């Protein structure tokens, strides 16, 4: 039998078990309990219980909403809670547990849910506030002199900011790797976004040198380390390197302590990653990697530490850079690397087979005056290794090289005085090598007649070179290399009307830019800018936005050679294309994208839309409106009037209105009037007139389905997404006209009535709703409303197993992965009712019977009917242990007794005899027994439907 050790009233319990309220009665008990290596309950369980208990609802106050934790307008409400003695005592006990962990943030973040971490750090700030409003983040910025604060206040503020930076890093990494972070709800994701916005302010206002007034260098070192990690996470490596080096300097005079837990090897790794200096004591691999960033200086390998693929890459990189003139080195350096790589390949070959040296390597020795000398010098380094197998392989390698060399070169290598050769070969072997027959003479073939037969003329040769140059241009993305290739091609091309876009017919240049650039005379500037813009559009299709922005910046730089009005216009249009690319990147990456000044640039761009001079492309202006809509700039949008963007502006107006009236007012007529005609097939073409008098703007006409889908699939803001989905759900509900099959969504009451003369296909609405919902879940995978709507949609379509999957995913999020009871306001009765019907349709009648018990008013008639089904396809009696309702257990005992199922009857008798199900127990024991069984049952369902 399962017993929750943190909840009083559960029986039986072990004699050494402590109940959580005992620690409040006897203060000294907590320290004694935590020092016990086998403490039951554990420190983590106690901490979570204390924090949850501090949030329990008093009779005269409402429950604290997790979503309001970061809302500064409700600070007074939260402080009022903490003034209660009971809750303050619980908070202090939670602090003691974390202090037992030596305030280790790694332990806190990996063991405690994020929602409780927020409670903890805010409680800490409140406890040390001493009349100050430290919970409000803005109050930290206003503190000018840290020395005026008490020690505990400085500690709490520093811990809060360290926690903020660490939780942002760990949460982002947890979504990309197997790192385990506390369970996350969608509401907590919004809190994390707020924390990230605050962290940007912390960066701007924090002056670490004011921390010198603190006596402990450990404290300053830990803060610098966390701050440097955050800058490293944000890819600001130069600034991160500065603080890592300062932290490393402080660590030289520090010894490990309970608070100071910086791992030296991790710190050294960060310093190396930020291109810190490499010393002779650094590993050979680190020296090699650093050397590749500093023109390959002082790289060698005698202990076979560097992987072969890195050595091969070095050889190719050096050959390429030397040929392009990007790198200068001694003329023998490349041959040294060729030799060492050839020796390395031979030395690692297993068995008796040794890889033969390539023909081109022997050719390099032949035609380099110092080839034999370099070859012998590098062989000498290897002969110092005494391993017999290694020396045998090297001997065979040298022998193979000599067999491929000309006779005079062999004699030069084997002449007296070369100790390295005598160490490998004896006198007899050297004599055999010297007495080998002369080289086979080469045969010279006259190819002139064959070339004449192929009719290769000079014109054909030029065309071949042009094709090769165009192929190189199509795959080159470096502007300097492109310039060189275009110069060659321009000299070679006799056609003055040569179009650079003919190189690749997939390349596209926006029409306004194309028109301006085509008006320029043919030349290097024109061709290079066209190529850079076309390649940036190619990168956008591949979602490589960083490279696309780099290409556009290079194109914009090219336009700065001249300041006349034509070049200024081209530069402005290119700048808008860069903004467009960044907006697409924001839409694609969304929560992982740093917005920076994107909002202000969008507003500046929209100021040109209705100007009489240069205007941005309609796609760019529309994307600006969508970006502002997705960042919540609804009030700004509603104060503007753009004829071409009626749909996103109408959505922004509805978002603003819904937030103002909390969805109680029917005020969404504008969106409704724009969307409804799109799906009405009976709406004649003659009615599809412009909505106002401007025939030039296609957006002023009745929208097409492609128009609205482009807008719908670009939405990222949760409010805008919910409004669009509720509109589509409303239309579907009206068309289906079945109360039992309605889709449940917020804001359904804000929409007008569908006119009777409309002819809208239900299938079309359902398909669009499914596409928009699937796209929205990509960016909000933990949004409970969206998950439930996905389950509803699958349910009404008859996909019952899929509906169970989505309903259970919503329950997983609400319950913190079944760590706490499911909250009723989040998962309503209709969800359990539809889950029950799904199970009945799939003939999983035992599951359906238990789901009947989850409803506020238990449907015993359906539960008994399902329990008595004999053709159930689920696990039957395997679920009996999850039943907590005595009435259902008694019915099952009666039923199996009637059918003479003795095994089932005995199992039920054992279940109903459990001590925690005794009818005489108090209500708390009964409630906890039910909660435990509910969570176990839901976990079993999730293993079947969510993770089959």
List the helices and strands and how they pair.
Blueprint (H helix, E strand, L loop, with lengths): L21 H4 L2 H7 L8 H11 L21 H8 L2 H16 L4 H7 L2 H14 L9 H5 L9 H26 L9 H20 L11 H17 L3 H15 L12 H10 L10 H10 L14 H17 L8 H15 L11 H8 L4 H13 L4 H17 L2 H8 L4 H6 L2 H8 L13 H7 L3 H18 L3 H14 L18 H8 L5 H18 L3 H14 L6 H25 L8 H9 L11 H13 L3 H5 L7 H16 L7 H11 L25 H8 L5 H19 L25 H18 L4 H13 L3 H15 L14 H13 L3 H8 L7 H8 L18 H13 L3 H11 L10 H23 L3
Helix pairs in contact: 3-5, 5-7, 7-9, 9-10, 9-11, 11-12, 12-13, 15-16, 16-18, 24-25, 25-27, 26-29, 27-28, 28-29, 29-30, 29-31, 30-31, 31-33, 33-34, 33-36, 36-37, 37-38, 38-39, 39-40, 39-45, 40-41, 41-42, 43-44
Written account of the structure:
- InterPro entries: INTS8, TPR-like_helical_dom_sf, TPR_INTS8.
- Belongs to the Integrator subunit 8 family.
- This is INTS8 TPR repeats domain-containing protein.
- The chain is about 60% helix and about 0% strand.
- The protein is mostly helical and about 950 residues long.
Radius of gyration, in Å, reads 37 Å
Termini Cα gap: 27 Å
Q: Helix share of residues?
A: 55-70%
Shape: globular
Strand content: under 5%
Low-pLDDT ranges: 1-12, 176-187, 204-215, 292-301, 350-356, 439-459, 684-696
Total DSSP helices: 45
Question: What average pLDDT do the residues reach?
Answer: 76
Structural class: mainly alpha
The biggest beta sheet is recorded as: none
Protein name: INTS8 TPR repeats domain-containing protein
Organism: Macrosiphum euphorbiae
GO cellular component, one term: chromosome
Family: Belongs to the Integrator subunit 8 family.
């Amino acid at each position: 039998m399962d017993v929750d050790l943190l909840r009083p009233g559960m029986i039986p319990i072990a004699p050494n078990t402590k109940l959580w309220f005992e620690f409040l009665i006897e203060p000294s008990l907590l320290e004694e309990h935590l020092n016990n290596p086998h403490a039951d309950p554990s420190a983590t369980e106690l901490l979570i219980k204390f924090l949850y208990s501090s949030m329990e609802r008093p009779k005269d106050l409402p429950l604290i909403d997790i979503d309001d934790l970061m809302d500064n307008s409700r600070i007074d409400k939260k402080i009022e809670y903490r003034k209660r003695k009971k809750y303050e005592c619980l908070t202090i006990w939670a602090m003691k547990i974390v202090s037992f962990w030596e305030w280790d943030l790694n332990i806190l973040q990996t063991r405690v849910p994020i929602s409780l971490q927020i409670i903890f750090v805010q409680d800490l700030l409140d406890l040390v506030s001493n009349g100050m409003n430290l919970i409000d983040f803005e109050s930290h910025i206003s503190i000018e002199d840290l020395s005026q604060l008490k020690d505990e206040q400085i500690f709490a503020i520093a811990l809060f900011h360290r926690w903020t930076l660490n939780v942002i890093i760990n949460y982002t990494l947890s979504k990309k790797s197997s790192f385990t972070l506390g369970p996350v709800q969608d509401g907590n994701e919004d809190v994390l976004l707020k924390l990230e916005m605050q962290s940007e302010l912390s960066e701007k206002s924090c002056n670490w040198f004011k921390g010198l007034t603190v006596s402990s260098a450990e404290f300053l070192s830990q803060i610098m380390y966390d701050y440097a990690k955050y800058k490293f996470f944000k890819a600001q490596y130069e600034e991160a390197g500065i603080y890592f080096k300062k932290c490393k300097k402080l660590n030289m005079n520090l010894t490990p302590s309970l608070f100071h837990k910086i791992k030296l090897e991790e710190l050294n790794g960060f310093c190396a990653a930020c291109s810190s200096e490499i010393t002779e004591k650094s590993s050979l691999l680190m020296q090699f990697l650093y050397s590749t960033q500093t023109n390959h200086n002082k790289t060698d390998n005698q202990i076979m530490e560097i992987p072969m693929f890195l050595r091969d890459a070095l050889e190719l990189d050096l050959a390429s850079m030397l040929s392009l003139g990007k790198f200068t080195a001694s003329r023998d350096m490349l041959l040294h690397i060729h030799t060492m790589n050839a020796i390395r390949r031979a030395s690692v070959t297993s068995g008796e087979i040794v890889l033969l040296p390539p023909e081109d390597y022997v050719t390099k020795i032949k035609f380099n005056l110092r080839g034999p000398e370099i070859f012998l010098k590098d062989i000498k380094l290897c002969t110092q290794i005494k391993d017999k197998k290694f020396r045998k392989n090297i001997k065979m390698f040298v022998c193979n090289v000599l067999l491929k060399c000309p006779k005079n070169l062999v004699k030069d290598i084997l002449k007296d005085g070369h100790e390295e050769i005598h160490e490998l070969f004896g006198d007899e072997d050297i004599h055999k090598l010297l007495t080998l027959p002369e080289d086979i003479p080469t045969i010279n073939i006259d190819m002139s007649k064959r070339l004449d037969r192929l009719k290769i003329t000079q014109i054909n040769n030029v065309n071949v070179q042009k094709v090769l140059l165009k192929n190189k241009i199509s795959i080159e993305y470096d502007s300097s290399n492109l310039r060189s290739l275009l110069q060659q091609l321009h000299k070679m091309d006799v056609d003055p009307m040569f179009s650079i876009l003919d190189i690749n017919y997939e390349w596209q240049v926006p029409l306004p830019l194309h028109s301006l650039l085509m008006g320029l005379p043919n030349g290097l500037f024109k061709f290079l800018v066209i190529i850079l813009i076309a390649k940036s559009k190619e990168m956008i299709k591949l979602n490589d936005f960083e490279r696309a922005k780099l290409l556009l910046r290079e194109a914009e730089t090219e336009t700065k050679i001249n300041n006349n009005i034509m070049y200024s216009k081209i530069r402005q249009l290119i700048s808008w294309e860069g903004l467009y690319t960044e907006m697409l990147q924001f839409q694609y990456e969304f929560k992982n994208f740093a917005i920076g000044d994107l909002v202000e640039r969008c507003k500046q761009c929209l100021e040109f839309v209705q100007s009489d001079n240069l205007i941005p492309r309609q796609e760019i202006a529309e994307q600006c409106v969508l970006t502002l809509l997705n960042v919540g700039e609804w009030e700004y949008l509603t104060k503007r009037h753009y004829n071409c963007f009626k749909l996103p502006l109408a959505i922004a107006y509805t978002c603003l209105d819904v937030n103002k009236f909390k969805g109680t007012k029917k005020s969404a007529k504008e969106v409704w009037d724009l969307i409804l005609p799109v799906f009405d097939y009976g709406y004649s073409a003659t009615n599809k007139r412009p909505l106002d008098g401007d025939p030039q703007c296609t957006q002023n006409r009745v929208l097409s389905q492609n128009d609205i889908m482009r807008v719908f699939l670009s939405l990222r803001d949760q409010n805008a997404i919910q409004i669009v989905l509720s509109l589509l759900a409303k239309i579907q509900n009206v068309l289906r006209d079945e109360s039992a099959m309605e889709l449940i969504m917020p804001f359904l009451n804000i929409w007008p009535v569908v006119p009777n003369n409309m002819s809208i296909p239900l299938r079309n609405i359902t398909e669009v709703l499914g596409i928009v919902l699937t796209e929205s879940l990509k960016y909000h995978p933990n949004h409970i409303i969206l998950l439930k709507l996905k389950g509803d949609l699958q349910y009404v379509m008859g996909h019952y197993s899929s509906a169970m999957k989505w309903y259970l995913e919503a329950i997983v999020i609400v319950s913190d992965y079944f760590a706490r009871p499911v909250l009723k306001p989040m998962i309503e009765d209709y969800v359990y009712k539809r889950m029950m019907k799904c199970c009945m349709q799939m003939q999983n009648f035992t599951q359906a019977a238990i789901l009947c018990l989850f409803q506020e008013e238990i449907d015993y008639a359906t539960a008994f009917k399902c329990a008595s089904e004999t053709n159930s396809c689920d696990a039957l009696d395997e679920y009996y242990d999850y039943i907590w309702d005595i009435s259902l257990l008694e019915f099952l005992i009666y039923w199996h007794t009637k059918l003479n199922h003795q095994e089932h009857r005995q199992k039920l008798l054992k279940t109903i005899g459990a001590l925690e199900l005794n009818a005489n127990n108090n209500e708390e024991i009964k409630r906890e027994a039910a909660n435990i069984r509910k969570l176990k049952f839901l976990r079993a369902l999730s293993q079947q439907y969510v993770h089959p």
